[in-house]
Amino acid sequence: MTPNQVTTIRIFLLPLIVFFYLADFIPWGKFIAVCLFALAALTDFIDGKMARARNQVTDLGKFLDTIADKLLITVALILVVADGTILAPLGAVFAIIILCREFLVTFLRQVAVNKGKVLAADKLGKYKALFQDLALPAFMLLAFFFQYDFFAETTFLLVFVIVCYTLLGIAVAMTILSGLNYFIKNWKVFKDDSKEIVEEKQEGK
Fold first, then answer.
1. Residues 6+ apart with CB under 8 A from 65
2. Distance between CA 202 and CA 194 in Å, rounded?
3. What is the pLDDT of residues 117-127, one digit of tens each?
């Protein structure tokens, strides 16, 4: 199995995560969805390790990995916001911040690709992904607790809720910081574009 095939597995797991999370008629469906999310997140670690170990790091692999990561986070985020597990209006605000950051970074990467450049993720981006991968399944698990009234009115549930919101708060903070850092580090992509336009105009005179 190639690293790209492992990445593809992560994408194919997405509809299963959605199905089991929303299928209340299936006993412990939300818990199964959490397990599938964990499996999908694990493939993110495996495909990268395989690619580096086998010297199979490719631009296609980087692109697929990025798309798979964004889809996984987007799906999980929509699920826990839509069912109110993340209380309104925090859920909507956090979703807007996270999704806008992803769209803007994708736009920047597309501009770079058009110029034959590939922008790799930096450390802040990896920390952001780590906390998102912790916070979102934690909220999915919280929804499972609420569904079956597990640990209702207990100290454990209160602590777990605090942990969930703390992880999400850190994830959102890292999302903002990593996005700003990404644009600051790669702003020359736009500057180079301006130079090219000026050069074309001068050549046309």
1. 7, 44, 47, 48
2. 12
3. 767 667 888 89
What six digits make up the tokens of 98? 């996270």
Between 66 and 19, residue with greater pLDDT:
19
User: How much is the average pLDDT of 84-89?
Assistant: 94
CB atoms under 10 Å from CB of 31, counted, come to 20
Q: Comparing 104-118, 126-140, 190-204, which segment has the lowest mean pLDDT?
A: 190-204
Specify the length of the chain in residues: 205
- Give every CB contact of residue 95 below 8 A, 6+ residues apart in sequence: 77, 78, 81
| Structure tokens that stand for 166 in this block | 């703390």
User: For 152, left (φ over 0), alpha (ψ -120 to 50), or beta?
Assistant: beta
Residue 64 in contact with residue 170, Cβ under 8 Å? no
Amino acid type, 112: A
**What pLDDT, on a 0 to 100 scale, did the predictor assign at position 120?**
67
Do residues 47 and 4 lie in contact, with contact meaning Cβ atoms separated by under 8 Å?
yes
Tell me the three state secondary structure of residue 122.
coil
The pTM assigned to this predicted structure is 0.85
The encoded tokens of residue 155 equal 């100290």
